């Protein structure tokens, strides 16, 4: 019998899946197809052969999304809808095969996800057939990434398999659990093109849906409501889907907005830019300031910080390897030296440092644990630190919504706007906010920094800029914050700070707030954040 560690090619995967319920195969197929989806979407936006035939991303999006629903809700209605959807994906694959192998393989993965979702539950060979479709979907992704990335594909597939080994499908799991997204550049370009298109609003659901897939979070704070929404979208009449994005996307948008309510986009961004930091406004000094959200379990946090200090001492004894680990140590130092009481920052900086270490081992920039055992010890210590904080409530909240990456990092103009706004806000701030804001903006903008460092710096910059914007417009946002369905510790603190500010007479006449309210630079940064973050 094939075990999860034995999954190393399509045949071993297929053999393992034959011992699982069909829904597991559908889930594996859906996640594989989702990984390759940007390749198809990018092709239909940029390639002439696709534009000449009016091809869109919709067939692939439809098949991947409906297969994810079918894994969780394997009803006859969903299977019927999936069966109606797969014909379009199959046709898209046939057209692209003559022009672009990568796009054809991405469409092949989507078509196989649709076939797995549509297969009759009561057929004699259901388990074997669905396992074959799932294995073919994963193999298609391997072809897109080329043979050099075999280990990445099978490592992530094994991780997927581990999540269902106890018989339960996860509501959400990062799409690339083993490392960075190899299609991030394409995804950033897709988002930029969609944001600039005249029908950007109608495509925004799909942008947010895929961002949630990448980050490993549900689209709505409540997983059950998310699945209800996705089921309703999946069951839109086939004729409406077949009419194309001009017809079905507005209907999808209508359903989505009915579930989202009227939450301002700025508040959604604050949930995605969770760094465990809350801004306030000091009426007496006319300055913005920041404070860390204290850990619920101080002993747990102190244990994690102590482990990171041990990591720092270990690296200090590693001679020439210190230079290789400069970025990892920067992330650790920012947490334990500047924010030792902030469990969210300690956790996510540790997570980023470990991800960076693993990526450097994989690309050869850092020695492997086999050649340098101390590297393996370092990785284990970082992993243990993460696990120490997993049960902290603020960390759990961050894992639900925090962005894993952002297209802002691929837009120099937007990063310049963000840096300009950060500099202005820093000038009317005090304490750690004044010291860190401009530095974070510069780190995010610097293309020579590792992506993990830039993502963390960007999240902190976006968090500060948007929070200062919310404070400056406190009357507008206070009610919206109070009406949020899912009040986290952080949003409750932001709401409390706004109430204190309003209770003190409001900040509208103060110079620091006027800078944020009237600054064209801050307004430009907010527009860029809303469009691309």
Secondary structure elements and pairings:
Elements: H1 10-17, H2 22-46, H3 48-52, H4 58-72, H5 76-97, H6 101-118, H7 126-145, H8 150-163, H9 184-195, H10 200-215, H11 223-234, H12 238-242, H13 245-260, H14 265-272, E1 277-282, E2 287-292, H15 298-316, H16 321-324, H17 326-338, H18 343-363, H19 373-389, H20 393-401, H21 412-427, H22 431-445, H23 451-472, H24 474-482, H25 489-503, H26 511-518, H27 520-532
Antiparallel strand pairs: 1-2
Helix pairs in contact: 1-7, 2-4, 2-6, 2-7, 2-9, 4-5, 4-6, 4-11, 5-6, 6-7, 7-8, 10-13, 11-13, 14-23, 15-17, 15-18, 15-19, 17-18, 18-19, 21-22, 21-23, 21-27, 22-23, 23-24, 23-26, 23-27, 24-25
Instruction: Report, as a whole number of angstroms, the end-to-end distance.
Output: 45 Å
Provide the residue-averaged pLDDT.
84
As residue ranges, the low-confidence spans are none
Structural class: mainly alpha
What is the 3D shape? Answer: globular
Provide the succession of SSEs: HHHHHHHHHHHHHHEEHHHHHHHHHHHHH
User: How many domains, as an integer?
Assistant: 3
Count of beta strands: 2
Number of helices: 27
Q: What fraction, in percent, of the residue positions are helical?
A: over 70%
Q: Largest sheet, order of strands side by side?
A: 1-2
Biggest sheet architecture: 2 strands, antiparallel
Rg calc = 24 Å
- Tell me what portion of residues adopts beta-strand conformation: under 5%
């Amino acid at each position: 019998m094939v075990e999860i560690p034995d999954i190393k090619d399509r045949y071993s995967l297929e053999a393992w899946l034959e011992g699982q319920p069909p829904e597991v195969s559908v889930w594996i197929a859906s996640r594989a197809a989702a990984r390759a989806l940007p390749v198809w979407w990018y092709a239909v936006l940029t390639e002439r052969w696709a534009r000449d035939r009016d091809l869109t991303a919709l067939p692939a999006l439809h098949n991947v999304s409906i297969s994810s629903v079918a894994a969780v809700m394997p009803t006859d209605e969903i299977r019927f809808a999936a069966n109606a959807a797969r014909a379009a994906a199959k046709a898209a694959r046939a057209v692209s095969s003559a022009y672009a192998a990568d796009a054809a393989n991405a469409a092949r993965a989507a078509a196989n996800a649709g076939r797995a979702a549509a297969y009759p539950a009561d057929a004699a060979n259901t388990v074997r057939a669905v396992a074959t479709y799932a294995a073919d979907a994963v193999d298609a992704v391997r072809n897109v990434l080329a043979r050099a990335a075999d280990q990445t594909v099978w490592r992530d597939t094994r991780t997927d398999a581990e999540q269902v080994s106890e018989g339960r499908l996860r509501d959400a799991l990062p799409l690339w659990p083993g490392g960075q997204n190899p299609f991030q550049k394409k995804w950033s370009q897709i988002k930029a093109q969609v944001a600039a298109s005249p029908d950007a609003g109608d495509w925004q659901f799909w942008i947010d849906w895929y961002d949630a897939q990448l980050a490993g979070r549900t689209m709505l704070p409540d997983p059950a409501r998310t699945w209800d929404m996705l089921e309703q979208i999946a069951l839109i009449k086939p004729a409406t889907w077949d009419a194309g994005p001009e017809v079905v996307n507005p209907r999808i948008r209508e359903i989505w907005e009915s579930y989202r309510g009227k939450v301002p986009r700025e508040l959604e961004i604050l949930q995605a830019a969770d760094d465990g930091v809350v801004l306030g406004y000091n009426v007496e000094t006319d300055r913005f300031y920041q404070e860390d959200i204290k850990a619920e379990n101080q002993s747990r946090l102190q244990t994690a910080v102590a482990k990171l200090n041990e990591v720092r001492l270990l690296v200090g004894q590693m001679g020439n390897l210190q230079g290789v680990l400069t970025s990892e140590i920067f992330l650790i130092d920012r947490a334990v030296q500047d924010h030792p009481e902030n469990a969210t920052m300690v956790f996510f900086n540790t997570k980023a440092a470990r991800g960076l270490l693993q990526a450097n081992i994989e690309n050869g920039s850092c020695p492997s644990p086999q050649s340098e055992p101390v590297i393996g010890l370092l990785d284990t210590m970082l992993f243990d630190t993460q696990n120490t904080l997993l049960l902290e409530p603020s960390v759990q909240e961050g894992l639900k919504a925090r962005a894993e990456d952002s297209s802002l990092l691929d837009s120099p103009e937007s990063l310049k706007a963000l840096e300009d706004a950060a500099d202005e806000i820093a000038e009317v701030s005090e304490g750690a906010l004044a010291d860190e804001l401009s530095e974070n903006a510069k780190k995010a903008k610097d293309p020579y920094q590792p992506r993990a460092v830039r993502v963390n710096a960007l999240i902190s910059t976006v968090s500060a800029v948007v929070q200062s914007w919310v404070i400056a417009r406190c009357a507008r946002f206070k009610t919206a914050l109070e009406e949020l369905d899912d009040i986290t510790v952080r949003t409750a603190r932001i709401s409390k700070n706004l109430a204190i500010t309003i209770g003190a007479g409001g900040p509208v006449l103060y110079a620091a707030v006027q800078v944020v309210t009237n600054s064209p630079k801050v307004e430009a940064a907010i527009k860029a954040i809303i469009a691309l973050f």
